[in-house]
Amino acid sequence: MIKTKRILSHLRRAADIYKMINCGDKIAVGVSGGKDSLTLLYGLSQLRLFYPEKFDIIAITIDCGFDNIDFTGIKILCEKLNIDYHIIPVNIKQIVFDFRKEKNPCSLCSKLRHGALNKTAKNLGCNKVALAHHLDDSAETFMLNLIYESRLSSFSPVTYLDRSELTLIRPLIYAPEKEIKSFVKNINLPVVKNSCPADKKTRREDVKILLGDLSRKYRNFKYNIFSAIEKSEIDGYINPERRKGTK
Predict the structure, then answer these.
(1) How do beta strands 56-63 and 128-130 pair?
(2) Where does residue 242 rank: exposed (0-12), middle (13-18), buried (19+ CB within 10 A)?
């Protein structure tokens, strides 16, 4: 129960600070089957029971075509939580790995998955899409952009997409990965094994290891990075003109 309350407190904090959820929202939760997306799905299902802004959620899984993936556990979970669940088959695996044979497949795969997710969300009448990026993801993205693109930036907790007229929200932005791992184990969520051939062989994985090493050497290193990102984001929401000027 304590671990559940901690995740819910992270969700509510993000929703309150960034005004992520409004009355009448229909939110599509992108569910890959990993620990992060299942935590987000379960957490939002509990948040909607008491959050003052009443909202609805549906779950969407983009089935990329990898072998030996079973989403039955997620389907059963959604039935228990009274959430509509949609599995959308796409040929992303064939495009990325078989046809194009991408050496760094994650970027293209992500674009194709998010495109399919957003299109499905729009077709199902949603106005928002919830992604499961957490605190560690934010710090890792900052380091990736710094090392590989010479940019000081990470993703935003809230992003409006003009083309699709959808708003992306990241309600787990304040949740550390270690708490998510503990939460999944405690609640016994049906995590689906990742069968992507690029799993654990990416630039992000390298940066994750780097951040882990630096955090062991320099206390709170990862959290300090996130804190700097957070201050910039919050300042942007308080002072929108300054936010526009930094783009």
Answers:
(1) unpaired
(2) exposed
CA–CA separation, 161 and 119 (whole Å): 12
CA distance 6 to 17: 17
AA identity, residue 196: C
CB-based contact 43:186 (threshold 8 Å)? no
What does the block give as tokens for 239?
């002072």
Residues 6+ apart with CB under 8 A from 147: 207
HEC readout, 112-160: HHHHHHHHHHHHCCCCEEECCCCHHHHHHHHHHHHHHHCCCCCCCCEEE
Tokens 């002072």 appear where? 239
Long-range contacts of 147-155 (CB under 8 A, 24+ apart): 147/207, 148/203, 154/229
For residue 50, count other CB atoms closer than 10 A to its CB. 8
Residues 6+ apart with CB under 8 A from 37: 29, 30, 31, 132
pLDDT in tens, 79-130: 999 999 999 988 876 777 766 665 666 777 788 889 999 999 999 999 999 9
Q: Tens of pLDDT along 161-195?
A: 998 999 999 999 999 999 999 999 999 999 998 77
224 membership: H or E segment, kind and range: helix 221-238
